[in-house]
């Protein structure tokens, strides 16, 4: 049996993702990091970026998130962000690149669905 962790991605409006997964990779402000079963407890600030989830069936899911926080404790990962949406890998990469470019220029929309700049 695979050793799984429980993951929740939450925004103020909804639960974006909830499930048991093999791993989750998050965009921490000090760099991207991966959480696996029995990871040490931590709280991390997150930046705009891509979340990669390897679910219990081996499927990979990608999400684009805005800034927020993640807590890891007792094989439970809770991600709290203003906005999060699921995309395929190429779309997620494109959105993250554009969001970071806008952030550097001093403007960024808070909702990852706001893609009127494409």
From TrEMBL:
It is found in: Cell membrane; Endomembrane system. Belongs to the ATPase epsilon chain family. It comes from Candidatus Chryseopegocella kryptomonas. InterPro entries: ATP_synth_F1_dsu/esu, ATP_synth_F1_dsu/esu_N, ATPsynth_dsu/esu_N. Produces ATP from ADP in the presence of a proton gradient across the membrane. Keywords: ATP synthesis, Cell membrane, CF(1), Hydrogen ion transport, Ion transport, Membrane, Transport. GO terms for cellular component: endomembrane system; plasma membrane; proton-transporting ATP synthase complex. This is ATP synthase epsilon chain. Residues 5-84 form the ATP synthase F1 complex delta/epsilon subunit N-terminal domain. One of its GO terms (molecular function) is proton-transporting ATP synthase activity, rotational mechanism. Pfam families: ATP-synt_DE_N. It is a peripheral membrane protein.
